[in-house]
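Hello,

Following up on my earlier ticket. Below are the two sequence lines again, exactly as submitted.
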Amino acid sequence: MSEQEYTPKSKAGKWFNDRLPLLTLGAHLTDYPTPKNLNYWWTFGGILTFCLITQIVTGIVLAMHYVAHADLAFASVEHIMRDVNYGWLIRYIHSNGASMFFLAVYIHIFRSLFYGSYKSPREVIWIIGLMIYLLMMAAAFMGYVLPWGQMSFWGATVITNLFSAIPLVGDSITTWLWGAYSVDNPTLNRFFSLHYLIPFLILGLVVLHIWALHVPGNNNPVGIDIKKPSKDTVPFHPYITIKDAFALLVFMIIFAGFVFFTPNVLGHSDNYIPANPLVTPAHIVPEWYLLPFYAILRSVPDKLGGVILMFSAIFILFVLPWLDTSKVRSAVFRPIYRQFFWILVIDVLMLGYVGAMPAEGIYLVLARVGTIYYFLHFIVVMPVVGYLEKTDPIPMSISEPVLTGGAEPSLARKINDKV
Amino acid sequence: MIKFNIKLLILSFFLLISLRPLQSAEMVDPIKVDWSFKGLTGTFDRASLQRGFQVYKEVCASCHSMQYLSYRNLGEPGGPEFSEQEVKAIAASFEIEDGPDSQGEMFTRPGKPSDKFKSPYPNVQAATAANGGAYPPDMSVLVKARKGGANYIYSVLVGYEDPPPGVTLDDGVYYNKYMAGNKIKMPNNLMDGLVEYADGTESTVDQMAKDVTTFLAWAAEPELEERHKTGVKVIIYLVLLTILVYLSMKKIWSRVDSEV
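Thanks for your patience. The regenerated structure is below:
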């Protein structure tokens, strides 16, 4: 991206900037040319940054009062809820914040899937994003263990036991992860340590994610490259900052609704029962954001097979840029792919639903159908549809909705409606 | 097409959330009570909390601990709001073990408002052994720890019945319509007139069950009133700020030939 060389006005600024070009970076971030046709699905990057910072700040305060010990963890959480000034508020922001973080990240990922943001030249942004998502799941899982309630304990037991499915060394690996012969105090201690570490790894990856984004620039709803920066783009500040701020505020209203009025609705009531290794809950369920993967795991009768399939469900996304054979990025101009996209959305929601249900009867059937479609979508539908599909005419540029091929005025309107 | 699907998506998401309680389909749905602490601006009924504390103290506390509460909580805003003297008197009516003193001996002294609620048994094992092998759960967060919350606790308290024909119960096991599996080891402790309410309210089983459930709901969420009040203010503030930012956004984007 060609930019004018930035020179600070003040002498001190120039002196500093020659030694560490922070002001140049600031100027780049402010002036960063952004497609002017971005819709509200593009505001979730900023929302996610807010979520990460909220989790880190509230988490640091919680860590000042939390005690990572099997005998004291549950009591220390109650201490936070009852005795720490605004402890209830900080904890409820943190626990609901995890859910809001995942809600936003799922919208962000599906936005990328719809508008083809993972495609060339943005593959590295996509892959870094997936690494962030993986770390988020690890952080969320370990965070859920920390209150040391029944679901904490049994969730940790189920998930760590997955590693015992690895042939030959599985049991040794599981024991090594636990630091004991079952989920116990050493497990809680290391989970706390890692739970504190991972958000900072995520923060580092977020920097790389944004850096990688600033090389090719943003994708946009019509999915075409910027032709004339002066016509097609607006400076990031104030145009995108104010729009992101508006979207963030709407998001915060929903967030606040959960925190203040139904702070426990997304959690499981069993997690207010202290962990008891001798009593297994009737249904062990993970948090809602992990349910689709839980459904995939349980849809396979074989333990190792289930584990492999569950991890494949995530890792297949890493090769997505090369599975998609379409030359057109945005699904706005891909009438066939667009239908499959919505089928995938419904499929993932259905998997999430059956993940919360007992793995039997109709739920098991649905889980299997859902799992098969999930993989078919990426392995078969994406390459084949991309190859065979006749895409709609795409506009010449962002600012001129003139279409290549048989342009007709009504189509331009149609595109505007869709976007 | 897209707009329609987004609606579908949002609908499915809420469907997903609303269907989650179906997991425990084997239980009878608890009775729905119109609690004063329900809703966005719900608050606790002060008199009911005080009566509920009395029921807890005279009935429940002989088996159930409430180890995360302190006596001082009884006088704090948003709770039963006993006066300072009353809280001191309540605390002082319990003998609390303290120490060791300078001689290394443990001793007992009258309770202070800063003390935690005294537990009826020294540990979980003792409580289990004294109650026919069933541990009477700590009641500090019981309302949050049961699906159905306050409605469920109330329902269990009034849900004792004679077992239907064909169901045989072991000694020390009772039939309860709302309990998961219908078998409960807690006997039906409430009977009309069991406690003599200080405020003269008639102590029917239903009244006592409601009062003690209200008390337990407060014990589980002592921050509820403050949370509701703060929440309303926060949402109003955010909505106003959102409107201002929206108008600013419209103004700023009016310079560009693009919609926001």
